[in-house]
Amino acid sequence: NCLGVRNAPPLMNLAWQKEFMLDGGINHLDKAPLRALLDTCEMDSNLDTIVARLKKDKQYPSMFKSAFGSDKITTQKIMKALSQYMVMLISANSKYDKYMRHEVGGEFTPMEKEGYELFKANCTSCHKEPLFSDYSYRNNGLDSVFSDDGRYIITKNAKDKGLFKVPTLRNITLTYPYMHDGRYPMLYHALAHYSKKIINSPNLDPVLIHNGKVGFDFTDYDLMKLEVFLKTLTDTSFVKDKRFEKPKDINYKNQVYF
Do domains 14-90 and 95-238 have the same CATH topology? Predict the structure, then answer.
C-alpha cells in the first residue's frame, strides 16, 4: 500500500548513459538496481536478506557458478549479474532505424515524414538522435512549485530545482504514463503540454521560451503528425526478444522474491 512519487524510467540502451534514475542519483550501472531493491515503496528488502534467499534457492547457486566460476553468492556478483542483463537491453530496430538504414520495412508515410521534420525542427535540442535524449537535466514546465525537487536533491544547487533527466523517446508508445510523475496517461496529452500547458518558472528550460512566449505554436494537426512519427520509434523486435523473457529452465513455483 505504498505509492511512489516518480514514474519508472524504461530499461533500454543503458550502456550509453553515465547517470541513472530521473535525478541522476546513481552514477554506475552496477549500483542502479539498489534503489529498487531497498526502497520501501518498491521491493523493500535489504542486501543480507537477498543474499541469504539466493543461497537457499535450489537453482541460483549453480547459475552463479556457471557465470562467475564459483557458487559463492555475494552482493557484488548479484549487482554485476543484474547490470550485465540490463546492458543487453538494446533497442535499435524500430521503423525509424530501418528508415535511417534504408532497409525494407523502413519506408515512412507522408505523415510520418512530416512529423519527423517537425520533430527535427523543434524537439532535438533535448531529444537528440539516435538515442532520442541528450540525458541532460531540464525543467519542462510542469509546475512552478515543486513537490519533487528532482536533480536538486542530488546536487543541492538551487538552479537544479525541478530539473529531471530528459527521457528517451524510443518505444515511447509503450512507456505510458508520461512525465516524471506520470501525470499524463496518453502520448497526445504529453505532446499537447508543450504547446498549451507549460508553466513558466525561474528554472524553466530556455529552449521552451520563444520570443518571450513559453511553449510551441503547435496546431492539433502538428501534434497528430508528431505522434505518428513517434510511433515509428517502437521496436517490436526488442519487446518480443525471447532472450529477455523469463528463462524456461527456472522453476518459478519456488521463485525467489527479494
Answer: yes
Residue 63 CB-half CA count within 13 A: 14
CA distance 91 to 121: 24
Contact 185, 176 (CB under 8 A): yes
Digit-coded pLDDT (tens) for 111-146: 999 999 999 999 999 999 999 999 999 999 999 899
C-alpha torsion sign, points 183, 112, 196, 160: positive
C-alpha cell at 208: 521552451
Ramachandran sector of residue 9 (left: φ over 0; alpha: ψ -120 to 50; beta: rest):
beta
Q: Which fold has domain 14-90?
A: Cytochrome Bc1 Complex; Chain D, domain 2 (1.10.760)
Q: How far apart are CA 135 and CA 125, in angstroms?
A: 11
As to burial, measured by CB atoms within 10 angstroms (0-12 exposed, 13-18 middle, 19+ buried), residue 12 is buried
Domain definitions of the chain by residue range: 14-90, 95-238
Residues of the chain predicted below pLDDT 50? none
Whole-number Å distance between alpha carbons of 4 and 22: 13
The domain made up of 95-238 has a fold known as Cytochrome Bc1 Complex; Chain D, domain 2 (1.10.760)
Q: Looking at residue 246, what is its pLDDT?
A: 82
